[in-house]
């Protein structure tokens, strides 16, 4: 084989590699709904914590339920039968459907794509057919379904007067990771706009398959409280709001 033949073979291999990468990059993924459902993890919590009469145990359990509650938007995380697939020249799939709330006609636009090892869902909402689209939900989930994030715009609905301009977004951010041992690491972040000035709030939940776990709550730049419990629900709550931490323990009878 001569030198020219070697050059042709090398060039052909490079060209095939480029074309293959190009096809992979532009290939549209097959649609799938997000698979992570945080409310299922509430079943792992020990009965002692769920039914505890201690006020601090009740406070911790209530915070955990709030953290795992996606009911405000979970109905929008599955593609409805009424969704119409849109023609797209990009590598993303796009869908459009209407949602009638009884008093308002909302139009939902969803884009689904694959970025590296992550599936990405981006959803927007507008009023009727004349309004401007407002950000609603963005979800990223690893193809292994073991980690991901969700960004929810709490200001997607900001009044009927917003027909021409989008609302200023205010996000609630969720992040999760399931370890090889089945432990759930779960974070919720948002801005509390009911106080002046607005304050950043963050909760961090660690939950093991046996039901034991911990919660750390942060307000502004400092930790507000730390709580931990065992497999039965016995636990400890430490308040860090003052200079000297205040600790409370509870025991399941």
Could you write a compact summary of the structure shown?
By secondary structure, the chain is α+β, with helices and mostly antiparallel strands. The protein has helices spanning 3-26, 47-50, 55-68, and strands at residues 84-86, 93-100, 105-115, 118-127, 134-142, 147-153, 171-178, 184-192, 199-207, 213-219, 222-229, 235-239, 246-250.
Describe the structure.
The protein has 253 residues and is an alpha+beta fold. The chain is 17% helix and 39% strand. It has a 13-stranded antiparallel beta sheet, with helices on one face. A hairpin with a 6-residue loop joins strand 1 and strand 2. The radius of gyration is 24 Å and the shape is globular. About 8% of the residues have low confidence.
């Amino acid at each position: 084989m001569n030198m020219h033949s070697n050059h042709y073979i090398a060039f052909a291999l490079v060209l095939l590699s480029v074309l293959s990468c190009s096809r992979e990059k532009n290939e549209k993924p097959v649609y799938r709904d997000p698979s992570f459902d945080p409310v299922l993890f509430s079943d792992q919590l020990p009965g002692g914590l769920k039914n505890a009469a201690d006020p601090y145990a009740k406070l911790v359990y209530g915070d955990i339920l709030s953290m795992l509650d996606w009911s405000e938007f979970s109905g929008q995380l599955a593609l409805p039968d009424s969704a119409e697939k849109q023609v797209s020249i990009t590598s993303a799939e796009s869908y459009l459907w209407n949602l009638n709330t009884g008093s308002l006609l909302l139009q939902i636009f969803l884009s689904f794509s694959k970025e590296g090892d992550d599936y990405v869902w981006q959803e927007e909402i507008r009023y009727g057919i004349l309004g401007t689209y407002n950000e609603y939900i963005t979800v990223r989930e690893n193809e292994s379904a073991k980690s991901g994030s969700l960004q929810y715009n709490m200001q997607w609905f900001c009044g009927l007067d917003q027909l021409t301009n989008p609302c200023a977004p205010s996000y609630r951010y969720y992040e999760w990771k399931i370890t090889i041992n089945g432990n759930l690491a779960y974070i919720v972040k948002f801005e509390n706009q009911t106080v002046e000035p607005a304050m950043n709030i963050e909760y961090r939940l660690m939950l093991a398959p046996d039901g034991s776990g911990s919660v750390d709550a942060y307000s502004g730049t400092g930790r507000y409280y730390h709580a931990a419990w065992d497999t039965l629900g016995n636990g400890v709550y430490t308040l860090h709001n003052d200079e000297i931490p205040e600790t409370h323990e509870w025991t399941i009878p």
